[in-house]
Amino acid sequence: MTMINRKAIGAAVLLASVSTSAFAAEPIKIGIPIGLSGANSVVAPSVVQSAELAVAEINAAGGVLGRPLALEVADDQSGAAGAQKAYDNLIFQKKVDALITMETSAARNAGLPIVAKGKTPFIYTSYYEGRSCSPYMYVDAWVPDQQVAPIVDLFVDEKKAKTFFLIGSDYAYGRGMLAFSKSYIEKKGGKVVGDEYNPMDASDWTAIISKVKAANPDALILSTAGGAPNVTLTKQYKAAGIKALVGNLGVDEGTAKSMGTDAEGVFLSASYVSSLDSPENKKFLAAMKAKFGDGLKTPNDLSVPQYEAIYLYKLAIEKAGSTKQEGVLKALGEVSFQGPRGLIKMDKQRHAALTMYLGQVQGDGSVKVLKSFKDVDPGAQCPNLK
Q: Which residue among 33, 84, 216, 367 sits deepest, i.e. has the most Cβ atoms within 10 Å of its Cβ?
């Protein structure tokens, strides 16, 4: 993974230097603190690639207010300590104009006080446990209010599941998602017969799997840190011969493909799958393939919001007429972008209504869409923020 990380960082730096050469004006710097190492290292390269494409397209079209965009990528190591260093470096040393990234909730929570200190516009592009609020942060990814119901409704109403076992990574995302899931399961008349957590960097799930086998639930709901924990947990419960229905709240299509046949049959709920049949998605996928060729990482529900967020930031700068923080922060809640996922507008208490897709992972790692749910509201997320 070290080699991949260096390539990702190098690509971003190279992009900035090449893309800005045709401009006389100073670049607008976008900081990307991201888990190039640690739990998110499986998915981070795809997120960086999406950012690179968006910046390349915008710069090729003349930049933003006559200025080029440039990326500054920093490894947050997928956790709090690394995030504090990455945010501090990007905001106070690199002097970035904004932060746009997907991260673990632990990294995000550690970075938000630094964002506030620097008064830096921040678009968070990762699905997460919801209700994280800052006057400097907007979110263009899903929250549990949008994502949990499709899976649980399928299991209870159609698959007739009555008992559920919940497994998560032991941090804000894992616990937050499963607390919401437990409440929703119980409202549907189901029963949670166990909930267990492992540290975010854990790779041994043996003890928890033993408890699952003893409880013999109808369904498992998983909420692990995106990337590596999904791979290890899925491999181990499959090897244990567990036959329960499985809904994974934290797996993206790229990670599913990296698991191979281990992920087959897993149900997920997402705001993006690569098979979406729209002109915008087809154009995006073709551009990604043309730019990265055989090195392309599978576009997914963590990388596509990154691409769209950079365009939303561009539109906000143009609406505000400058990169000044006050104007950009106001404009971020007013602009919209028609991207691979459809029309994205972060006007719901700094979150976005999203079309959600209920899918099932196939043997080749692709996702078959079973149902779609248009413009699902994120619910009450940050009612105290204007």
A: 33
